[in-house]
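for the writeup, i need someone to sanity check this before i put it in the appendix. the sequnce is what the collaborator sent (i think, or maybe the updated version? ugh). structure was predicted straight from it, no edits. if anything looks off just tell me and ill rerun, i have time this weekend
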Amino acid sequence: MPKQHIIEAGESTESVAWDNGHFWETVWNDGGNADLKQRRQDPNILEEGDVLVVPDRRPKQEPGATDLRHRFRRKGVPSMLRVRLLDQDKPRAGVRWILKFGRKSISGATDAEGWIKCPIMPDVTDGSLTLETGEVYNFEIGTVRPVKSLRGLQNRLRNLGYYGGAIDGEMSSELSAAIEKFQMHYQLPATGQADEATESKLLELHLS
């Protein structure tokens, strides 16, 4: 029967679905997750404690002769990693890069808009990005939380270079100053509080 999975730090619909032998769409579109879909919108931006319903796997039959050996390969749909490089809001185009996940490496160059886009498997949780300039960025995957939560604000402001404090879900003078700095940069009312306009701008700049 379907089970209820309580989301922990670093988990997303994709990672939970992968661990349970499903495509992420199968889990996210299950009727048991209708309320969660309405609240969170994005399948990969969940909050610790959210309950994700994981449906039963359906058996599938494949024909095959009984006196022969057969190899079955599980089909996988890789996740897509998207990272954008900016310098003072201007895209860093044509920058050579290397991404490393465990023993695997992928290389390429940013596109005209400064984007790095490459497929990764859903069970990847961390990696490093090295640029031809010598810059190295270590990152974790699946740690961004909903923008309306304090952790979500901290995540996005830190990734955008405005906040350097802990991702602890606590309001602080440092976080308030980071919000105000962000608001001033984008000509929003500088209140130090995350209103709807601030959240919308963060979502525009920080896609996940």
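The helical segments are 13-19, 24-28, 34-40, 150-159, 173-185, 196-205. DSSP finds six helices and ten strands in the chain.
thx in advance!!
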